[in-house]
Amino acid sequence: MSKIWKWLLLIAGIFAVFVGFNMFAHPLISLASMTFWFALVFAVQGISEIVQYFKSEEKHGWNLFGGIVTLILALTLFSGSFIEMVTFVPFIISLWALTNGITKTIVGFKVRKTDKSVGTPLVWMGILGIVAGLIMMGHPLMTGLYISYTIAFVFIYQGIVAIVQFFKIK
């Protein structure tokens, strides 16, 4: 590995650790800044589900419904003010998980009629999504903090891994 790449690894590691600790120190600000990325992911997923519905030979209205709801949630995130973004992100994520869980459960039961090996895990993942959505809806502040802290931990972990790799690479 060239020296430039090795040093970039160290810089990336230090930066990731710094960002992670900053997210731990300011979780709500971090949550607000993540809103854009959540909205982008929701928009892509919503569009993907809608396109998949129209391209699929077997049309399940619940897939279309799930895609439309996900796209509406994305547009809500894109159009909100800073304060609204901070307060609504946990609610929107929980509503999205709940809606996604319901649609996956319904589709899973339909798919199970033709292929149990695909339908059964889909049903269980849908039920898990429903439970997670309800828990998150009941505790929006904890949901927001959990999201911020989890991502902060991942940044710190990845940063430490990069720094260790810097010292291990010859």
From TrEMBL:
The keyword Translocase does not apply. The keyword Transmembrane helix applies. Keywords: Membrane, Transmembrane, Transmembrane helix. The chain crosses the membrane at residues 7-29, 35-54, 61-82, 88-109, 121-140, 146-167. GO terms for cellular component: plasma membrane. Pfam families: DUF308. Coiled coil: none annotated. PANTHER family: PROTEIN HDED. This is Acid-resistance membrane protein.
